[in-house]
Specification:
Layout (H helix, E strand, L loop, with lengths): L7 H11 L2 E2 L8 E2 L3 H13 L3 H7 L1 E3 L11 H10 L5 H8 L3 E4 L9 H16 L8 E4 L19 H7 L2 H17 L4 E2 L24 H17 L3 E7 L20 H17 L4 E4 L18 H11 L5 E3 L17 H8 L4 E2 L4 H13 L5 H17 L10 H7 L3 H12 L3 E5 L8 H4 L1 E6 L12 H11 L3 E6 L6 H11 L4 E6 L7 H11 L4 E5 L14 E4 L5 H11 L13 E2 L7 E3 L9
Parallel strand pairs: 3-4, 3-10, 4-5, 5-6, 6-7, 7-8, 8-9, 12-13, 12-14, 14-15, 15-16
Antiparallel strand pairs: 1-2, 11-16, 17-18
Length: 607
């Protein structure tokens, strides 16, 4: 049924009154303005005035290229035309009435805080210029650590496994509050964090350090702490990836993983963090493109599984917030069904938000046709739209859709935030090995340092490279340090160059990155150790590297290669901070995975 939409002025007045909450500042708690029943009545009236096309659009959260909502660079216009059929973010909103936009660094959405804020305002202006004026829910993946879309000068914080190593609930909450406040200041009000997956598989190619650890109860407590921190900042947190992506050997970006946990194992291992998030009042939960036969024998991916999303998440766990899919462009959700079926099946399963389909026109028209053909009812769409609008109202977007330059300056990358990030990072750095008490090194005994190792691309595009960051941090502490990037897969010639460069040095620091049994990084470390120059390794991603290495005098785990964690590792290395982190996952022997080399809780300190 179609109704004539009320005027923009009338609608904004009505929806402002309908807002369940308003954020009075980017770090202020949400204050309830009226009863839930009154809010829902007003929102239902708003929904009843929307066209079917507008309703379909509200369900989609879409990527768009460009730093500006109306005047992106020509290359971004070309990308938008090729992939979406529109030129700009404003045209995306006008044509498809999308309910949300997701920001990516690679889509050139996140150049700097003031640009992001203006992009957000431009998108909101486009939303409020529609026949039914509605603010958009702007989101991103700002997990911190190895997944970060907004970079410096915004504050970068330790990621999940680092926080797991720190073990401090107050630090986790504070990190989320800082992260949330800075996102809110630039107009991003839904963050796809915290990760609630329990990383029980060291070979997991996609989660790893994005998880707080391998203990379900410890993960559950840290998830709850971060949810509370984001709530204090006035933004929506998103626990992911339901029903649990921690025990996979396949990356769902590129394939469809199967979880072999029994129902009892799922309840014991995977469910606790999601239960904890729901108890903490989580605003949105993201689905996983994984098959869990014990939860749904049809072997549909969880994103498309009614038994999992409605039967377990909604009915068994009692969750009535927003359910958002993981990206619909990932292969894990596309292996069994076509791109026209996936969004329809996701809605039938119980999803509310359809995230980033590869071809928006195909997905959008498929949902529209499913309603027109009777496969989906308009009432089913209304159910999801109500949840989405409730969240927008709770976040105060109907009352305050825009952000200000002054708010950016007051909040983003402040000295206080940066100092808190440094302190938290120091408390997460983990000393795994320290033969003969070699660390900390001193300028007098070990003043001449060679830094070699892997230089993976910056998670946010604004930090590193790691060898340079480590070298600069050592130099600032009075050491004479030289950087030599050897890469993730160093060649024999590069290893020879590193060995030659080690001559005359007092110590060699090696940044290691996900060392496997066949990795030439093993040869690099062994050859350097054979020179007689003491070698210190710093695991800049997964802490499991130490099981594959030999000959080093000491090993630190930093859990990420962003500057905040690398600089903290150097302060620990040089004795300007004491190592306090404890392993949140076990490190198993490389030659016998049944044996644990370093257990959960392992971590050395200085005497």
């Amino acid at each position: 049924m179609h109704h004539r939409a009320p005027s923009r002025r009338t609608l904004l007045t009505v929806t402002a009154a309908a807002a369940a909450a308003a954020v009075t500042g980017v770090t202020a708690p949400i204050a309830h303005a009226e009863s839930d029943d009154d809010r829902d009545k007003s929102l239902r009236r708003l929904i009843s005035g929307m066209s079917l096309e507008e309703k379909v659009g509200q369900l989609f959260v879409m990527r768009v290229y460009g730093h500006s909502a109306t005047a992106p660079d020509q290359a971004d216009i070309d990308s938008n035309l090729k992939e979406i059929g529109v030129r700009t973010a404003a045209e995306l909103v006008e044509k498809y009435h999308v309910g949300g936009v997701i920001y990516f660094a690679w889509a050139h959405n996140t150049r700097d805080p003031h640009q992001i804020a203006e992009l957000s305002n431009g998108i909101q202006r486009a939303g409020l210029a529609q026949p039914t004026p509605l603010p958009l829910l702007i989101s991103t993946d700002q997990e911190h650590g190895i997944v970060c879309r907004v970079g410096k000068p915004a504050t970068l914080l330790p990621g999940a496994m680092a926080l797991g190593a720190g073990g401090s609930h107050s630090d986790a909450r504070e990190a989320a509050q800082i992260a949330g406040a800075e996102l809110a200041a630039v107009g991003i009000r839904q963050n796809y964090a915290p990760v609630a997956d329990v990383n029980v598989n060291p070979a997991n190619p996609v989660i790893g350090v994005r998880s707080y650890g391998s203990d379900p109860q410890a993960v559950a407590a840290l998830v709850a702490a971060q949810v509370k921190g984001y709530q204090q900042a006035g933004i929506a947190a998103t626990s992911k990836h339901f029903p649990g992506h921690g025990d996979t050997a396949v990356d769902s970006h590129y394939g469809l993983p199967t979880i072999t946990h029994t129902r009892a194992q799922w309840s014991e291992l995977d469910a606790p963090p999601f239960r904890s998030a729901i108890r903490a009042g989580i605003d949105s939960i993201m689905t996983a493109h994984i098959v869990v036969p014990a939860l749904d024998p049809s072997e549909d991916p969880a994103t498309l599984s009614r038994p999992i999303l409605t039967g377990i998440l909604r009915e068994e766990l009692g969750y009535d917030g927003v359910v958002v899919t993981d990206s619909l462009g990932m292969e894990g959700v596309r292996t069994k069904y076509g791109d026209d079926r996936v969004p329809v099946l996701a809605l039938k399963a119980g999803v509310d938000q359809l995230l980033n389909p590869p071809k928006l026109d195909v997905a959008w028209n498929a949902v529209l046709k499913a309603v027109q053909d009777g496969e989906l009812t308009e009432a089913r769409l209304d159910e999801s739209i109500l949840r989405i609008l409730r969240l927008k109202a709770k976040l105060g977007l109907f009352r305050r859709p825009y952000v200000t330059a002054a708010g950016v300056d007051r909040t983003v990358g402040t000295a206080a935030h940066l100092a808190h990030a440094d302190r938290i990072a120091e408390e997460t750095t983990t000393l795994l090995l320290n033969e003969g008490g070699f660390l900390p090194i001193s300028r007098l005994a070990h003043g001449n340092v060679l830094v070699v190792g892997a230089d993976p691309a910056s998670p946010s595009g604004t930090t590193g490279p790691p060898t340079t960051t480590l070298t600069q941090a050592l130099t600032e502490l009075g050491f004479t340090a030289t950087a030599l990037s050897t890469g993730i897969t160093p060649t024999a010639a590069r290893i020879d160059e590193a060995v030659a460069a080690a001559a005359g040095k007092d110590v060699v620091v090696v940044g290691t990155y996900n060392v496997s049994a066949t990795s030439p990084q093993r040869t690099l470390v062994a050859r350097l150790a054979a020179t007689g120059v003491p070698v210190v390794t710093i695991a800049i991603r997964n802490p499991y590297d130490i099981a594959q290495l030999s000959g080093q005098r000491a090993t630190l785990a930093a859990y990420s290669w962003t500057d905040v964690e690398l600089r903290a590792a150097v302060r620990v290395l040089a004795g300007h901070a004491r190592p306090q982190g404890r392993l949140p996952v076990p490190v198993q022997r490389a030659d016998d995975p049944a044996q644990v080399l370093y257990p959960v809780g392992h971590g050395l300190s200085y005497a």
